[in-house]
Amino acid sequence: VRNHDPEIMLEAFQLVRLGEDDVKSKFPAMYNAFTYGAPPHAGIAPGVDRMVMLLAGEDSIREIIPFPMNKNAQDLMMGAPSFVEPKQLEELNIICTKKEEDTDL
Protein backbone atom coordinates (compact mmCIF):
# COMPACT_ATOMS: atom_id res chain seq x y z
CA VAL A 1 0.00 0.00 0.00
CA ARG A 2 1.35 3.41 -0.94
CA ASN A 3 1.86 6.10 1.63
CA HIS A 4 -1.19 8.19 2.46
CA ASP A 5 -0.07 9.67 5.80
CA PRO A 6 1.42 13.20 5.82
CA GLU A 7 3.66 12.43 8.82
CA ILE A 8 5.23 9.44 7.05
CA MET A 9 5.61 11.58 3.94
CA LEU A 10 7.57 14.16 5.95
CA GLU A 11 9.76 11.43 7.47
CA ALA A 12 10.52 10.04 4.01
CA PHE A 13 11.54 13.46 2.71
CA GLN A 14 13.73 14.01 5.78
CA LEU A 15 15.82 11.06 4.53
CA VAL A 16 16.78 13.20 1.53
CA ARG A 17 17.31 16.24 3.74
CA LEU A 18 14.09 18.09 2.94
CA GLY A 19 12.44 19.72 5.92
CA GLU A 20 8.74 20.23 6.50
CA ASP A 21 8.78 23.75 5.01
CA ASP A 22 10.56 22.47 1.89
CA VAL A 23 8.01 19.68 1.42
CA LYS A 24 5.08 22.05 1.90
CA SER A 25 6.49 24.53 -0.64
CA LYS A 26 7.69 22.01 -3.25
CA PHE A 27 4.84 19.48 -3.01
CA PRO A 28 1.84 21.48 -1.74
CA ALA A 29 -0.85 19.53 -3.60
CA MET A 30 0.35 16.16 -2.35
CA TYR A 31 0.91 17.38 1.20
CA ASN A 32 -2.53 19.01 1.35
CA ALA A 33 -4.23 15.93 -0.09
CA PHE A 34 -2.59 13.73 2.53
CA THR A 35 -3.50 16.22 5.26
CA TYR A 36 -7.18 16.12 4.31
CA GLY A 37 -7.15 12.33 4.32
CA ALA A 38 -6.17 10.55 1.13
CA PRO A 39 -7.48 6.97 1.25
CA PRO A 40 -5.08 4.02 1.35
CA HIS A 41 -4.33 2.89 -2.19
CA ALA A 42 -2.26 0.12 -3.71
CA GLY A 43 -2.35 1.02 -7.40
CA ILE A 44 -3.87 -2.22 -8.65
CA ALA A 45 -6.82 -0.72 -10.50
CA PRO A 46 -6.65 -1.54 -14.22
CA GLY A 47 -7.60 1.96 -15.37
CA VAL A 48 -10.01 3.00 -18.08
CA ASP A 49 -7.39 2.83 -20.83
CA ARG A 50 -6.51 -0.78 -20.04
CA MET A 51 -10.18 -1.79 -19.87
CA VAL A 52 -10.80 -0.17 -23.28
CA MET A 53 -7.80 -2.07 -24.66
CA LEU A 54 -9.28 -5.36 -23.45
CA LEU A 55 -12.78 -4.52 -24.72
CA ALA A 56 -11.37 -3.52 -28.11
CA GLY A 57 -9.38 -6.75 -28.33
CA GLU A 58 -6.07 -4.91 -28.78
CA ASP A 59 -2.75 -6.50 -27.80
CA SER A 60 -1.04 -3.22 -26.89
CA ILE A 61 -2.30 -0.30 -24.83
CA ARG A 62 -0.49 1.97 -27.32
CA GLU A 63 -3.29 1.25 -29.81
CA ILE A 64 -5.93 3.03 -27.71
CA ILE A 65 -4.00 5.76 -25.86
CA PRO A 66 -4.59 9.12 -27.59
CA PHE A 67 -0.94 10.22 -27.37
CA PRO A 68 1.15 7.06 -26.97
CA MET A 69 4.90 6.79 -26.81
CA ASN A 70 6.75 4.28 -28.94
CA LYS A 71 9.02 1.57 -27.55
CA ASN A 72 11.88 4.08 -27.38
CA ALA A 73 9.81 6.38 -25.09
CA GLN A 74 9.41 8.95 -27.86
CA ASP A 75 6.18 10.90 -28.30
CA LEU A 76 5.82 11.03 -32.06
CA MET A 77 2.94 13.56 -31.93
CA MET A 78 5.02 16.11 -30.02
CA GLY A 79 8.45 15.14 -31.32
CA ALA A 80 9.68 14.57 -27.79
CA PRO A 81 12.20 14.13 -26.47
CA SER A 82 14.20 16.49 -28.63
CA PHE A 83 17.32 18.57 -28.34
CA VAL A 84 17.14 21.73 -26.28
CA GLU A 85 18.27 24.97 -27.84
CA PRO A 86 21.26 26.68 -26.18
CA LYS A 87 19.10 29.77 -25.51
CA GLN A 88 16.67 27.65 -23.46
CA LEU A 89 19.51 26.20 -21.42
CA GLU A 90 20.92 29.66 -20.83
CA GLU A 91 17.53 30.97 -19.61
CA LEU A 92 17.39 28.15 -17.05
CA ASN A 93 21.06 28.50 -16.10
CA ILE A 94 21.80 24.90 -17.13
CA ILE A 95 25.23 23.87 -18.39
CA CYS A 96 25.58 20.64 -20.41
CA THR A 97 28.89 18.88 -20.04
CA LYS A 98 28.21 15.98 -22.41
CA LYS A 99 28.94 16.56 -26.09
CA GLU A 100 26.11 16.19 -28.59
CA GLU A 101 26.22 12.82 -30.34
CA ASP A 102 24.56 11.52 -33.46
CA THR A 103 21.20 10.09 -32.40
CA ASP A 104 17.90 9.19 -33.95
CA LEU A 105 16.13 12.15 -32.31
Automatic annotation (TrEMBL):
<keyword id="KW-0547">Nucleotide-binding</keyword>
<keyword id="KW-0067">ATP-binding</keyword>
<feature type="domain" description="Aminoacyl-tRNA synthetase class II (D/K/N)">
    <location>
        <begin position="2"/>
        <end position="71"/>
    </location>
</feature>
<protein>
    <submittedName>
        <fullName>Asp-tRNA(Asn)/Glu-tRNA(Gln) amidotransferase GatCAB subunit C</fullName>
    </submittedName>
</protein>
<dbReference type="GO" id="GO:0006422">
    <property type="term" value="P:aspartyl-tRNA aminoacylation"/>
</dbReference>
<dbReference type="GO" id="GO:0140096">
    <property type="term" value="F:catalytic activity, acting on a protein"/>
</dbReference>
<dbReference type="GO" id="GO:0005524">
    <property type="term" value="F:ATP binding"/>
</dbReference>
<dbReference type="GO" id="GO:0016740">
    <property type="term" value="F:transferase activity"/>
</dbReference>
<keyword id="KW-0030">Aminoacyl-tRNA synthetase</keyword>
<dbReference type="Pfam" id="PF00152">
    <property type="entry name" value="tRNA-synt_2"/>
</dbReference>
<keyword id="KW-0648">Protein biosynthesis</keyword>
<dbReference type="GO" id="GO:0004815">
    <property type="term" value="F:aspartate-tRNA ligase activity"/>
</dbReference>
<dbReference type="InterPro" id="IPR045864">
    <property type="entry name" value="aa-tRNA-synth_II/BPL/LPL"/>
</dbReference>
<keyword id="KW-0436">Ligase</keyword>
<dbReference type="InterPro" id="IPR004364">
    <property type="entry name" value="Aa-tRNA-synt_II"/>
</dbReference>
